[in-house]
User: Fold these one by one.
Assistant:
Number 1:
Amino acid sequence: MQTRAERRAQQQREQTEAFDQFSQEIFENRAGSGDDDRPPRRPLLRSFRFWVPISILLILIAVVVIGGLMGKHVYDRAMAAKSSLEQAMPLATKAADDVMAGDNAAAKETVAQISALTADARKQTDDDIWKSLEWVPVAGPNLYAVRTAASVTDDLVRDALTPATDLSLAALKPADGAIDLAGIKSMQGVVSQASTAVSKAATQLDTIQDDELISQVSGALDKLTGTVDELEPMLKPAAEILGVLPAALGDEKPRNYLVLIQNNAESRGTGGNPAALVMIKVDKGRISIEQQASSGDFDNGRKTPVTKLNPETVGLYGDKIGRWMQDSTLSPDFTETAGIMRAWWAEEFGTPIDAVVSFDPVALGYLLKATGPVTVPNDPVDVGFGYKVRVMDEPLTLTDKNAVPFLLNGIYSEYPVPERQDAVFAASAQAVFSGLTSGKAEPKALLAALTQATDEGRLMYQPATESEAELVGESRLAGKLPTTNESSTMVGAYVNDITEGKLDYYMQLDLAASSTQCTAPDAPVFGVTATLTNTLSADQAAGLARYIAPARFFKKGDVATNLVLYGPVGAKTATVTVDGKPAKATLKPHLGRPAVLVQVQNTPGQKHTISATFEGAAGAYGPLEVRHTPMVRPTALTVDAAGCGD
């Protein structure tokens, strides 16, 4: 397939050849060619064959002369349109900032200025003289592209940006423990209108043939098209999500959400040991904590799983995933975890659960950055039999800086007794929840915190209804591994601690992934490399609290891990190495993928590198993507998909 540059070069060659042939036809005298079998030709100037092309040439000359006059007219209008659009561009950024800041009055004033400028650009390019020249070779397609771009821009300002000035993001922000459902519903109408406008713009832009566009026009068009292409897949789902949000917030009937707080200091596939649980009730937008529990409240170590399990999951992780509540998060597929946790909750408490949510203390830190510090009171806690115990001597202030070190590490030294730890966890969750629902967080900061948590796999949601499940799909929010390689070719690395302790606070996970999907599409090879480093020193290990490092099954400070590496859908495992040497591994199919389980033990200061390669079948593959267990420490990641472009 020719590139745009090659097509243009070919068109220029064809135009040159046509002109050469035309010139030869005019100036060559073919009379008396020496062919005695044909009558001698009349001189070219007297030939009718001459007057036809000359008439055409004269018409073209006339058009060029008139076009020169028209060209000045068109040029002046083009420059005026360009000036208007250039003035509008920075104002568009300001308007967006005004909306995000909640200053709708300023946004409306700014958009009014933008609207006047884009309307002028449209007017300049939408006259009869401009349109009459759109049939002219080379110039015509560029004129049409400019006119269409000006029209599209003006439509977007009128039908998308102007309505957006009525958006109140404050509707997304809880205030006094409730969310404004009426505000959510009004947002849906605005976003739906914007989505329709962007889809219409995309259709109009598709009518432009870009083969003959000059660089100045194609460059500007690429920016506009890129913006529309970026907005279109965002706005439609946003409108759909806003459509189901009122029901999710208890508009039709109350809902119960079971929230698992996964402890990353004891890693599991989707995050960590889900030792703390909170049941949140939402009714008509009002949010409240109805119940809290810990892992000790369940019948752990039971002989049979609490619910029916996927045989492939049992083959890879064992049936302990359903016999110990703390192991319900072993699988990287959150839909499996949610099903198991629903069964645990139903057996122990019987409270109906509509949906399941997962969060971790690192993500709580992100929320605290949005809400600001919260105070955990030292109120007495009911411990049963009519007794109340003051768990903490003094109130605790949690910030985005100290939440993770305290909740995932310091608490075990300061409060050695598990029951006191559970009480502090519960009080901390209540304090963060109160800060979140008080309305202190600005919508922009809150959205940034939730987005970061979702992107890192720290926030997951197992929906309550089929319509919600369709919206969530196989996104990161769903916590579900993609079932095909179409949208992305996902490989993964998942960490499951088997030490018994909270030592993953000190573990560093670094990942590298590679593929030949673009250089060898008929027999692609995919590689996943995980490096696990125990950052503890021997001296640090010796002083660890017992609950962090019980040293019952391994030496104090040693970290034992079941690391599971996943290949793409439909691939097969080729090789597995540890520190460059062939390694013993468990090879099993899971979730339509090959999975490799390798046991690794890291002494203090020790590092191990585990690699697996997977052979894929011939076919098309989406962009290479890597997912992994969200750890306490940030995971360094490198991706090499040679030949696939940026």
Note: Residues 52-248 form one domain.
Number 2:
Amino acid sequence: MNLKRNLIFLLMLFAGIFASEAQHLISKKYTQQELSQLLIPLTDWEPFPGLDERSAWMNADQEMMEEYLKQANEHIDYDWPYIPATKSLLIDRTGDRDEYQAITFEKRKILGTMILAELYENEGRFIDPIINGVWSICEESFWGVPAHLPKTEEYSGLMDVTRPFVDLFAAETATYLAWADYFFGERFDEISPQIRKRIRHETQTRIFEPLMNQHHGWMAANANGRPPNNWNPWICSNWINSALLLEQDENKRAALVYRAMEVLDEFLNPYPADGGCDEGPSYWGAAAASLFDNISLLDLATDGAFQYVYEDEKVQNMGKFIYRAQISEDYFLNFADADPQPNMAASMIYRYGKAIQDPDMMRFGAFYRKENEVDLPRFHYFRNFFEVFMQEEFRNAEKGLPLPKDVWLPDIQVMVARDVEGSSDGFFLAGKGGHNAESHNHNDIGNYVVYYNGLPLLIDVGRGTYTRKTFSDERYSIWYNRSDHHNLPSINGFTQLPGSKYRATNVSHKAQRNSSTMALDIGQAYPENAGIASWKRVLKLDRGKKVTVNDDFQLTESTSLVQHLMTIYPARVLEPGKLSIPFEDAEGNIIPFELIYDAASMVAEVEKIALTEPEDKGIEQKWGDTIYRINFEYPSVPAKGKSSFVLQKP
């Protein structure tokens, strides 16, 4: 068994390497010299109207710009805070990351709002506050966050300023300063030449030099073969953005951009051909969506030389994932660390759909554009400049949710099925295979969720609040990351283990008019000494009728066996073999769904999960203090057996 697992792992690793060598979609089309010729020179490049182009800014979305002006007025006397060292030390002392991040994120959001407000008003009232913000940020010891510092005694929560490196938020910071320079550089020079000089010095030292001269872990696959996650395209988008706006030497400018393109291919090459984001929809906005940000910037800076990327089938599938992973208007798949109710970056989604000529994606993006919601997002700042000039197009855009009847993503092994195409009415079933080394991984091979009328019934708990523990060697001591707090079995006292060799096997999918089925063997997701010969699981939606989960297992040891189900309702046993889940619909009506199980084999017990740890705050924010685990224990464990759960309306 161990030899077989290792062989499968090596085959997958080699396949990934060969696929990586075969693509390079972004960086191999043009040489660096050719890119240098294609890039619009800095002195000529005008990605968005300058400050003095008043007619353009008067035609920007007036409602949005008025709201930015209002918010900026509220902070015009903002006292740009110094961030004490003790705030940074909290990540090491208590594991808290939020106190530091609350300060640094607010500073950047206020700076971004003031930039937009001054562009709209153009009275100079925000120039000094903007300069104060720029100067305050330049004086920070680290533009990133302490949670991203190396977890060694050498750092212990404080940045080594002699060894700069680039994390997500350091790269984001460069973008804010670059746009401040682009729009107000001449105004800055009228006050002091030191302002723009400081911006360029700090971005050169903190961003460009480390990116060009140091390897960062997010740039390529790690030693275990895990491909880069959302950090790669997210940082690259800010890298390209700031390089295009700030680097005055055209050769160096092209070199910076070209290197970012090479790094970006390290993300795109191994990405699944089906476009599936194993980080989930809430991370898609910084993964595939950030890939689009990169291409849109490159295309803008070369007068359309990167249009060819949008014709690539993988790039198109990457965009479509966001609506293929939708459950209902409010809910999305939340396997791993994804959130069940993520925010939608509507204008970016619409633009991505338009670029790949997908009307469904365009309608989806237009649907989520909220006319009266114009609060500035915390991240991906430059997306806002596209959005403020799209109000007329949005006003006339068709809106709607595709809600496909069946989705099968064979590379990440995710199934989606619903009762009715284009509607959240009735049952929704989703299941996953894959492996336990996915980005933001939970040990969850074979897990599934069931929703009804667009609302949760059996859930994936998802992630809680990020702390020091979240991305440490203690990650799988957190209960919601473990398989025994997913809709999965604990077998002979064992839960699933992390690692790419712990994976689903013999995975298949079949969609028909009246049903949709996913089959997989989850035995290999557990340790070798768990005593599992095979554990075949079949997830089935009988449209309009029921959801069935059938397990067929063979064990080489049979000491203990418990099936677990997670819900947000206080389920109760009505009688042996029948359990009631008091589902609440959108109108507040209680529908007591029936869960039928084999009373001859299993004894059911319901427990409420106590939310007491710092990591649990995020769980309570998403679901409330209403997490219940239903445990079905086998008093006598057969070496060979079957189990069945049937979920249906009464």
Note: Residues 98-121 form the longest helix (24 residues).
Number 3:
Amino acid sequence: MTFAIHGLAVSRGIAIGRAVVVASSRMEVVHYFIRPEQVESEIARARNARNAVIDELRRLQDEMPKDAPAELDALLDVHLMLLQDAALGTAVKNWISERLYNAEWALTTQLEAISRQFDEMEDEYLRERKADLEQVTERILRHMKGMPSPVAAPAALAEASRAGSADQQELPLDAGVDEPLVLVAQDLSPVDMLQFKSRLFAGFITAVGGRTSHTAIVARSMDIPAVVGARAASQLIRQDDWVIIDGNAGVVIVDPSPIILAEYGFRQRQNDLERERLSRLRHTPALTLDGECIELLANIEQPGDGAAAVRAGAVGVGLFRTEFLFMGRGGNLPDEEEQYRAYREAVDGMQGMPVTIRTLDVGADKPLDKAQPKDYYLNPALGLRAIRWSLADPAMFRTQLRAILRAAAHGQIHLLFPMLAHQSEIDQTLAQLRLAQSELDARGAVYGAVKLGAMIEVPAAALMVRTFLRQFDFLSIGTNDLIQYTLAIDRADEAVAHLYDPLHPAVLRLVADVIAEGRAQGKSVCVCGETAGDVGMTRLLLGLGLRSFSMHPAQILAVKQEILRSDTRKLAPWAQQVVQSENPSALMAP
């Protein structure tokens, strides 16, 4: 009987194939107390298992195929960083020595403690890194028990699935002997995904995960249809079921009828043709029908992500989030030299194109593993975060500024400051920058000139746009936070997430005003939130006068296609009608 499972659409496209269902990797952990004389041997057991996993991941990185997505290597780096976090090792050791927990109990206890910190994070991308921590812990536990990964033999699973069953349903595609397969799992780690040959699977389905989970990131980078967060998928889908993944709608259709298969087979062929057409646009200039040149930039998280941005046709990096250089280190922050190398790698990877580096955007929702009082996290979105955090620790802030300035000697760097809202914050920020330059001058260090920009992500900043433009070279609208703060909506809270609306009149008017004022003063305004990569918003933003978009590299070509089909002169009057409307959604078809 045909039925549908709903999840999150994270990688566009249609996939049709037989299900390869991978059992959940979750392990049962036995809790018991050890004797005092067993403490050292138990600590050694935990340490040896962790070191074995580190060696395994390094070996996988060394043996990684040349055509593997750069995102996989970056995610393995995240796992290695978590494994090598001194705070994790110290905490596990303390649980063993002070509480006399067995090693497995100590490890899972610390996992629960750290997981609570991740749950409190406001940033969706960082909150999803909880899954990485869980997977690292799982691998250590399996080494302790001498157990293989549940996906250690995917080729065998694939071959078994390819053999099919006697009464298999006929697929209205030319599948032949090698029938297409889709992977169904509770979750997938980067290591698990490396163990699969990408050509074996037409798509992925996971029961957990979000739009910024590692499975979603890799699926987008490989251009493979995927649905995540399909809660019941691993229970309801049986081995060898025919499955349709609708990556556009976030729907999984199980045991589809011949009519549904035929319909989705047609859609799949149309998507394949569309993807081929899009790939031809990679080197096409982003020009509107009326000759307006549009800047398409990439958002990146790791220094090595520049290669994927270049391959996608980006003309620069509009947002390099620097948080991951700082997180998961037990409070041992990266020094100037380490940061300089990371920023230079990003600059070198963009082959002379500009790189916009945002200074540290952390806070209670993205902590740096520093102990805080219990009530510190009661309202993290409104607390000490972003530029407020940096100004509260000027030595740390100037270390980052010096590293960025030095990297600017090797290429174009635009320096972006997050969450500014007060003139006093602007004054303090610029003073710290001047002091960092003086410190470099004092020691004779070489550094380059940078353009200065400010994030517009709180209503106060949008309303002060003229003040901001007088003091900065460019502005970048962070729509994710601007929507959240304007509407007082926590988009991570399922009870109110439905109220998170990019088309709310108040949000649109703030965005429109910032863009208009930037154009009036001849300064660049970029949109770097999720709105920039939403093709449904492209024409509206063009009509409002936006000429710079920054998004995930996988979204660039689809947005470029909308740009090539647009005439900004015709869109401008319609865009103003949308902004002034009490119901903008009703006018969104120009």
Note: Residues 151-157, 159-177, 370-377 have pLDDT under 50 and may be disordered.
Number 4:
Amino acid sequence: MKRTIKKVAVVGSGIMGSGIACHFANIGVEVLLLDIVPNALTETEEKKGLTLDSKVVRNRLVNDHLANALKSNPSPIYSQKFASRITTGNTTDDMAKIAQCDWIIEVVVERLDIKKLVFEQIDKYRKPGTLVTSNTSGIPIKFMSEGRSDDFQAHFCGTHFFNPARYLKLFEIIPGPKTSSEVLDFLFDYGSKFLGKTSVVAKDTPAFIGNRIGIFGIQSLFHLVKEMDLTIEEVDKLTGPVIGRPKSATFRTVDVVGLDTLVHVANGIYENCPNDEAHDLFKLPDFINKMMENKWLGSKTGQGFYKKEGKEILSLDLNTLEYRAAKKASFGTLELTKTIDKPIDRFKILVKGKDKAGEFYRKNFSAMFAYVSNRVPEITDDFYKIDDAMKAGFGWENGPFEIWDVIGVQKGIELMEAEGLKPAAWVGEMIASGNNSFYTVKEGSTYYYNSQTKSQSKVPGQDSFIILNNIRESKKVWSNSGAVIHDLGDGILNLEFQSKMNTIGGDVLVGINKAIDLAEKQYNGLVIGNQGANFSVGANIGMIFMMAVEQEYDELNMAIKMFQDTMMRCRYSSIPVIVAPHGMTLGGGCEMTMHADKVVAAAETYIGLVEFGVGVIPGGG
């Protein structure tokens, strides 16, 4: 059957529920957001003479939660005017309205008894065929739909959004015992095409995929930090952007998410996974228990691993549990990777380090490699889903199997053996069968080693996309140090920037002109797009600054004229020029977008002329 989503009900309006409601409003869907009726009046309500029967009181919780979400930073909504797509109500007076909805998402407190009561209510009012999903982060899906109607159970599963729902891309789909395959296929496609997510189908195991692996990684570091006598600053230095992870790295991330949230999931895994070979790692170290007692939960309580005092950021000493001035962290091994732009190219050097950093990476990666290999087939039959989940849910640039591949499968096994660990048996079978890597690229598509069929299988979902990483060499038409031109087929070229942070300097301008020359003579059109973290941070301001300092005004004028002429070529060339911006699209990147024949922008595009901030007038147009 053809299924369309015009209206969604979100039951539970806390941080997660309001965030999910806002994201559906972002994509143009009407939302009904419900929460419970308060059981007591506030002082202000009493002074106004209101009663528990007053509508404003009955909808107070849902309206307050939504208002707080809309004021939060970063914002959960693309534009404040989109909030008009959200209607609020309460679960006592307005539950019957869910009959008008195409999808009902439960986001109430993480207690099975309460969830089951909510589903009983939903089953009473929903129309047959309506999707019902739970945003639980760990309660088994199979228990939730017990006792519900057959139609409910066929249309029920888990859909786990990660917080904040607008920004984190992981969308885990967890089937229940009777979920129909049509429902799973629909949700997978809807997540990818409409919600802008990386959809991952997970098994109904504790913490599913993302949190099972992510919490293992964090817990593993909690134990390693004490074993190696590292400071929290050192761990955050080693586990941040240098290895393609967010700036918040490990301890700052825990502060942002909340230590109590992490402890809740870790305890759940410890209690529900008694046969996990790393079971003891999920036991909380003493310093975490002490922080929980002290209510040092992170940003929400004003202090966690870090604490702000005035303008100074203090760090927690894990040995004394006292706050102290932050210490600078530096390692010789990291210095060796400074000239390497892409994190994926750094791992081989990092694991060979002769200092504490090298030892840390060998221990850390060997533990992770062993753990993820042993989760196949427990949490998923296909290991690539683990990589997808870690990249989309935790902001890793590369998943654990991708990192293992680049270090070398055999080298990864040697690292494990040095730590007294070993990979799962299927990894040995893979090597024995002549497959020396987890992934291979053939004819522009990524294949993975399928441990069930014992052969290479194509990663699904690629046929509707052109993945530049997979065609970079095979379809290359021309390149210089700043740009590369690919033939996408169907008479279309693609120009990809390859400069640092995709800045627009001389080489990139030469590349744009070359691409337009080629397209005008032999092709039908040009796309300017890339798969970098950002489209472009703009012109190379450093170069312009140096020309000004050296008073090389003739060269400066020539550079600006070349920039302007190139933008005009984008606008007036005889072939269509399509620009596909995403992420930071600043300065020259913005001007190029303004001069394109058509713009296909990602929703998360941060675009503008920022040169004024450094005292430069935008000159590209």
Note: The mean pLDDT is 95.
